[in-house]
Automatic annotation (TrEMBL):
One Pfam family, short name: Pyr_redox_2
Source species: Sesamum indicum
Protein name: Dihydrolipoyl dehydrogenase
Lineage, uppermost ranks: Eukaryota, Viridiplantae, Streptophyta, Embryophyta, Tracheophyta
Protein family: Belongs to the class-I pyridine nucleotide-disulfide oxidoreductase family.
Residues forming the catalytic site: 482 (proton acceptor)
Length: 503
């Protein structure tokens, strides 16, 4: 089936289960675009992955576009204090850990291995600086105007910007896209000072390796940043309110993942809540209690990372002035075309419902401006992959086994462990598995879950398979190069509808 028709079909289904959020958007296509005036066709508030991608795509579609960003650099949370710096530190700390613990078994002897934290941080900052400047270059190349400052609504077509230089300017646009992202969710009674009690931003810039790090929340940030500091020498304890780490993950994969992290000396206190935090002494003293209530215990830390989720960021935008609707969690409500209840005003990325991921924000941004330009957009949140960039990584797309069961669908499971994969054995990095869930009757793939050193790369074959409605047999009968980790996906696919060869 041609991609365009898939795009149309999926677009029609998007948000179909949440019709209360749908607004009439018939006016959108009837609004003309500015030509030759100072007004913009599109104004984007926020220069993160959602906003900057929307701005570039809008300009590429011939729309006069301005992007407003308050941070002073483009790239938003992701490039400045999120995806990129965390992956830089994950890579550097992994190299240190490998040098210290694995090189010798590969016949590489080092007299000594040390952490040079300032150099590690400088490498991270260099990567961030290059990438954020790169986006400014892309703006110039695509003729996107860039206003540095804090935007707030004056009307549905006017944004007042307090510029970083100190002045004020009014930016007008026929279509305004809110892409203001998210911020760390604070916990009652815990004040983040970014030194001893840090958010992910502080955890990306610690000046020394804490002896004891307590992480609140066993989600993406907690496990990634816990891994960074654990590899560099911290004793890491993760306190999680829920019964499981990464509660959204496939249960079977999660169990193996938790065991792997525990082997790396990460400690978990599940079903536990933080009652209070005392910073009056030298370190931090946490009082904990079972989530269901019961006897309190205490825990000492040098640094506490608060990573219990993120919350949509709309402070200072003055949404109420123009009447943009939000839900109880503060997320801006949009229809399948990313239009809010206010004509001409749209929202994308972390500030709307859906996974809080950079690639999802980018997809939102492209689809939103495609709709504005009168074209078909294409986003399917069921096809958004998720990756935890620990070692091994865990990546998934589609449904977990728990979700498939809850749907009442008859299904088959195919699994293949990396212990039986020749490439993984050759490089002595064979922890993990591929797990495929397929509908029993049709063999259509419903979900794929991979735990492997490079799961975040391997998953895209599965994303494509799901996107095109492939069966497990489709993957199994596709030739995969040898020796590669990808062969584990082929073998898991064989195990789903028939039998694998190598186990
Ligand atoms: C530590 C960490 C690691 C992460 N790692 C990953 C990862 O590996 N992969 C992944 O997919 N996602 C990751 N994420 C999530 C990812 O960063 C977000 O999903 C993504 O940045 C959302 O993009 P966005 O454009 O919606 O918002 P943001 O990136 O938050 O951008 C919004 C921008 O809007 C600006 N802004 C806000 N209000 C105004 C205003 N009124 N006027 C002007 N500008 C304004 C902000 O300054 C900000 O730059 C991570 C997040 C964190 C915190
Ligand atoms: N690799 C990636 O793609 C990546 C990396 C980092 C962040 N992110 C994004 O950033 C967002 C925020 O990350 P995050 O890790 O802060 O959130 P998260 O939603 O991934 O995890 C938060 C965890 O904290 C737990 N929690 C909530 N309240 C708690 C409390 N009071 N005490 C103890 N535990 C509590 C939750 O049960 C959950 O397990 C995520 O939604 C994710 O999409 C993605």
């Amino acid at each position: 089936m041609a991609m365009a028709s898939i795009a149309r079909r999926r677009t029609a289904n998007l948000f179909s289960s949440s019709s209360k959020h749908l607004y009439n958007y018939s006016w959108i296509l009837t609004r003309g675009f500015a030509s030759g005036s100072d007004d913009n066709d599109v104004v984007v508030i926020g220069g993160g992955p959602g906003g900057y991608v929307a701005a570039i795509k809008a300009a590429q579609l011939g729309l006069k576009t301005t992007c407003i960003e308050k941070r002073g650099t483009l790239g938003g949370t992701c490039l400045n204090v999120g995806c990129i710096p965390s992956k830089a530190l994950l890579h550097s700390s992994h190299m240190y850990h490998e040098a210290k613990h694995s090189f010798a078994s590969h016949g590489v002897k080092l007299a000594s291995v040390e952490v040079d934290l300032p150099a590690m941080m400088a490498q991270k900052d260099k990567a961030v600086g290059n990438l954020t400047k790169g986006i400014e270059g892309l703006f110039k190349k695509n003729k996107v105007s860039y206003v540095k400052g804090y935007g707030k609504f004056l009307s549905p077509s006017e944004v007042s910007v307090d510029t970083l230089e100190g002045g004020n300017t009014i930016v007008k646009g026929k279509h305004i896209i809110i892409a203001t992202g998210s911020d760390v969710k604070s916990l009652p009674g815990i004040t983040i000072d970014e030194e001893r009690i840090v958010s992910s931003t502080g955890a990306l810039a610690l000046k020394e390796v804490p002896k004891k790090l307590v992480v609140i929340g066993a989600g993406y940030i907690g496990l990634e940043m816990g891994s960074v500091w654990g590899r560099l020498g911290s004793e890491v304890t993760v306190v999680e309110f829920a019964a499981d780490i990464v509660p959204t993950m496939d249960g079977e994969v999660r169990k193996q993942f938790q065991r792997s992290l525990e082997k790396q000396k990460m400690k978990f206190m599940l079903k536990t809540k933080v009652v209070s935090v005392d910073t009056t002494g030298n370190g931090v003293k946490l009082t904990l209690a079972p989530a269901a209530g019961g006897d309190q215990t205490t825990l000492e830390a040098d640094v506490v990372l608060v990573s219990a989720g993120r919350t949509p960021f709309t402070a200072g935008l003055e949404l109420e002035k123009i009447g943009v609707e939000t839900d109880k969690a503060g997320r801006i409500l949009v229809n399948e075309r990313f239009a809010t209840n206010i004509p001409g005003v749209y929202a994308i990325g972390d500030v709307i419902p859906g996974p809080m991921l950079a690639h999802k924000a980018e997809e939102d941004g492209v689809a939103c401006v495609e709709y504005i330009a009168g074209k078909e957009g294409h986003v399917d949140y069921d096809m958004v992959p998720g990756v935890v960039y620990t070692h091994p990584e865990v990546a998934s797309v589609g449904k977990t086994e728990e979700q498939v069961k809850a749907l009442g669908v008859d299904y088959r499971v195919g699994k293949f462990p990396f212990l039986a994969n020749s490439r993984a054995k050759a490089i002595d990095d064979a922890e993990g598995l591929v797990k495929i869930l397929a509908e029993k009757e049709t063999d259509k793939i419903l979900g794929v879950h991979i735990m492997a050193p490079n799961a975040g790369e391997l998953i895209h074959e599965a994303v494509l398979a799901l996107q095109y409605g492939a069966s497990s047999e489709d993957i199994a009968r596709t030739c995969h190069a040898h020796p590669t980790m990808s062969e584990a996906l082929k073998e898991a696919a064989m195990a789903t509808y028939d039998k694998p060869i190598h186990i």
